[in-house]
Amino acid sequence: LVVLGIETSCDDTAVAVVRSNGEILSQVISSQSELLARYGGVAPKMAEEAHSLVIDQVVEEALDKANLTANNLSAVAVTIGPGLSLCLRVGVRKARKLAGAFNLPIIGVHHMEAHALVARIIEHDLHFPFLALLISGGHNLLVLARDLGHYIQLGTTIDDAIGEAYDKTAKWLALDLRKSGGPALEELAKEGNAQAVKFSTPMKQHKDCNFSYAGLKTQVRLAIESRNINPEIPISAASIQERSSRADIAASFQRIAVLHLEERCERAIDWARKIDPSIKHLVVSGGVASNKYVRSRLYTVVEKNDLKLVCPPPNLCTDNGVMVAWTGIEHFRMGRFDPPPPADEPEDFVYDLRPRWPLGEEYAEGRSEAR
Ligand code: ATP
Ligand code: FE
């Protein structure tokens, strides 16, 4: 099997061609980071236009790099949610055009399931069931993956995701946002003292597996204000003292943001083992999982609990086409796909887009365990 995967749920236009043995034949990403840096966030209409401008070219390049034509494909996979519907539509339209023209089956993919399952490309003995921590710009999920397409949600964020907190902190510290905020903040944090600013860990009193990052964001903003840090002055122009003060905030923020992950993972391991004692792995994926400090802290958690950590390489943690193609392959093998769309599908056809789409069911007993 050879599947082409298309990802346009947020700000990256990503396409990849993957073989069912896990071999990545090609991977192309067109990133909107310039736009992001200029406007300080994703504006859906602008992101849609950017996707539309490059999608044909990105698909073509992915096929070229794989040395294939669309005739060689077995199927097309595409993210149908969750995400920005204007953006999802661009990917789905392209996927259906391609599938229609070459008579290929099509697989609609859940973006967060894809973040989790891509780990199975790199770790061959990663079998179900396993625990997954999915940390990105819009999600903060702890799920027990029982089987393909069968997930139990142990925890989610009650407000912001950790990636959002990294991005805002980076913006307020006036870091260079040409890349995204997360990597810039991780870099600066290396220079700082993680004990310098006393932030409190979120949700200490809640004995569940949920997350909250809005309060930590507020604590960071107050710390920045009380230290008279001027976000108009870019970090590159800051004095040595000012830079070290910003680095202290970055390091202290990162320590608490990640401590919150550690505490929730500890509890989630207990909960998951009550549901299914046979779990052997913790998968950590999503953009924030490319952070080295995050990886090293979670490594100590799995060591202590006799599990194995599976963390995809950074370029498979952030949004990419490989995870979509791979998740397509997994579903296709189980016979879950849609027949080829008609080649002459009208432009105004109503697509199955799922901008809000929970991954699995909530763990109902969680509420009573939390008491
Ligand atoms: P979602 O997956 O929730 O829909 P998304 O697709 O926009 O959100 P991803 O590409 O999976 O998100 O992840 C992007 C997020 O990861 C951003 O918030 C970014 O700052 C963060 N991120 C990327 N690299 C790092 C890093 N090294 N350290 C911390 N955060 C990082
Ligand atoms: Fe993502």
Automatic annotation (TrEMBL):
Q: What are the Gcp-like domain coordinates in residue numbering?
A: 23-326
Identify a single GO molecular function assigned to this protein: tRNA N(6)-L-threonylcarbamoyladenine synthase activity
Cofactor binding note of this UniProt entry: Binds 1 divalent metal cation per subunit.
**Which compartments is it annotated to reside in?**
Mitochondrion
Its BP terms in the Gene Ontology are: tRNA threonylcarbamoyladenosine modification
Sorted alphabetically, the keyword list is:
Acyltransferase, Metal-binding, Mitochondrion, Transferase, Transit peptide, tRNA processing
**A Gene Ontology CC term for this entry?**
mitochondrion
What does the record give as cofactor? a divalent metal cation
- Which reactions fall under this protein's catalytic activity? L-threonylcarbamoyladenylate + adenosine(37) in tRNA = N(6)-L-threonylcarbamoyladenosine(37) in tRNA + AMP + H(+)
Which family would the database say this protein is a member of?
Belongs to the KAE1 / TsaD family.
Q: What is this protein called?
A: Glycoprotease 1
The lineage is: Eukaryota, Viridiplantae, Streptophyta, Embryophyta, Tracheophyta
Question: Gene name on record?
Answer: GCP1
Show which stretch of the intact protein is covered. 66 to 436 of 458
